[in-house]
Amino acid sequence: MRIVVFVLILANVATAIGVVYARHEHRQLFIAFKHLERERDELNIDFGRLQLEQATWAESNRIDQVARNRLGMAFPSADETVVVRP
């Protein structure tokens, strides 16, 4: 009878330790999860900013301005245009 009681007490203690360990592990994983969520949100904000910046740099007016000012490009005049027909 004593052996059965001892085994039950031992099983009870082992189960309690298992529960404490599982809760601790859950807390650690939850903290890591929240950290990753926060990092994901920050990356999404940065991605949105970069998309906006890309759209700004790719505007046709901006490209035309850079082509004229930095590269010295201009539309050819009518007498400089040659039409090639097959």
From TrEMBL:
Keywords: Cell cycle, Cell division, Cell inner membrane, Cell membrane, Membrane, Transmembrane, Transmembrane helix. PANTHER family: CELL DIVISION PROTEIN FTSL (PTHR37479). The keyword Repressor does not apply. Coiled coil: none annotated. This is Cell division protein FtsL. NCBIfam families: ftsL_broad. Part of a complex composed of FtsB, FtsL and FtsQ. The keyword RNA-binding does not apply. It comes from Noviluteimonas lactosilytica. Belongs to the FtsL family. It is a single-pass type II membrane protein. Pfam families: FtsL. It is found in: Cell inner membrane; Cell membrane. Essential cell division protein. May link together the upstream cell division proteins, which are predominantly cytoplasmic, with the downstream cell division proteins, which are predominantly periplasmic. One of its GO terms (biological process) is cell division.
